[in-house]
């Protein structure tokens, strides 16, 4: 059953007057008719089945609440060195599917793409739509937050219980335990930092260490910029959701 996130302004009691974008999707893509049912996620993250009572006018009526919680039990912030545009959009989508809470893009000294906060914000609507659609597809109850473009001088604003930087030099030097040991600690918030295609400048690593971040390797191999955050999110998800169910 198709899922839709609903804004508070579109809710009137037990009825929803669907917005124009979702209305068009229901009619032209899903080919829904009056009497069909959809799943709606409300701003309070409660999930309900709604019946379409008038497809032409886009009116839905609440029928049944679904008791589900598909979110990670910890909050994960991804601070990501801005890569080429198509790679960034791909990471937005996949990181959402893997449960990220917040994505903080930043410009690194070695970022290939040349942009600024104003130019980045012009694409915000497109980026937010990618996050919304990926959240619907992966059956989440919340859409990840996407902040404005930052520099590392604002890193302190995103410090968590655990703070890690994926750094390729750690792999080259044979370090393979920091990430795993960090995930064994008791924590509710976690921030991971991944650089752009060119990696981090040593001065950037120094800034992050001074802010309390710890560098770590991601196994024996060197991963691409767009692969590293998904690797880290997958490992975090495994450690929080699947590890405890293993009969070791």
TrEMBL record:
It is an enzyme of class 2 (transferase). GO terms for cellular component: cytoplasm. It comes from the Bacteria. It is found in: Cytoplasm. It catalyses: uridine(1498) in 16S rRNA + S-adenosyl-L-methionine = N(3)-methyluridine(1498) in 16S rRNA + S-adenosyl-L-homocysteine + H(+). Keywords: Cytoplasm, Methyltransferase, rRNA processing, S-adenosyl-L-methionine, Transferase. It holds the Pfam family Methyltrans_RNA. Belongs to the RNA methyltransferase RsmE family. This is Ribosomal RNA small subunit methyltransferase E. The lineage of its organism: Bacteria, Bacillati, Bacillota, Erysipelotrichia, Erysipelotrichales.
């Amino acid at each position: 059953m198709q899922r839709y996130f609903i804004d508070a302004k579109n809710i009137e009691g037990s009825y929803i007057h669907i917005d124009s974008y979702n209305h068009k999707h229901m009619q032209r893509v899903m080919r829904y008719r009056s009497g069909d049912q959809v799943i709606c996620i409300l701003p309070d993250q409660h999930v309900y089945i709604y019946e379409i009572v008038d497809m032409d006018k886009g009116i839905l009526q609440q029928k049944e609440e679904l008791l589900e919680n598909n979110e990670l039990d910890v909050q994960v912030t991804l601070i990501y060195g801005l890569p080429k545009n198509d790679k960034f959009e791909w990471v937005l989508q996949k990181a959402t599917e893997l449960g990220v809470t917040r994505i903080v893009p930043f410009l690194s000294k070695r970022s290939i793409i040349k942009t600024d906060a104003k130019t980045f914000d012009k694409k915000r609507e497109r980026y937010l739509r990618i996050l919304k659609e990926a959240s619907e597809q992966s059956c989440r109850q919340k859409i990840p937050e996407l902040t404005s473009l930052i520099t590392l001088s604002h890193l302190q604003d995103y410090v968590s219980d655990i703070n890690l930087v994926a750094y390729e030099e750690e792999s080259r030097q044979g370090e393979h335990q920091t990430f795993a040991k960090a995930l064994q600690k008791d924590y509710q918030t976690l921030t991971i930092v991944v650089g752009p295609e060119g990696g981090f400048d040593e001065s950037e690593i120094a800034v992050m260490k001074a802010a309390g971040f710890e560098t770590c390797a991601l196994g024996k191999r060197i991963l691409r910029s767009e692969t590293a955050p998904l690797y880290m999110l997958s490992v975090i998800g495994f450690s929080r959701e699947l590890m405890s169910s293993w009969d070791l």
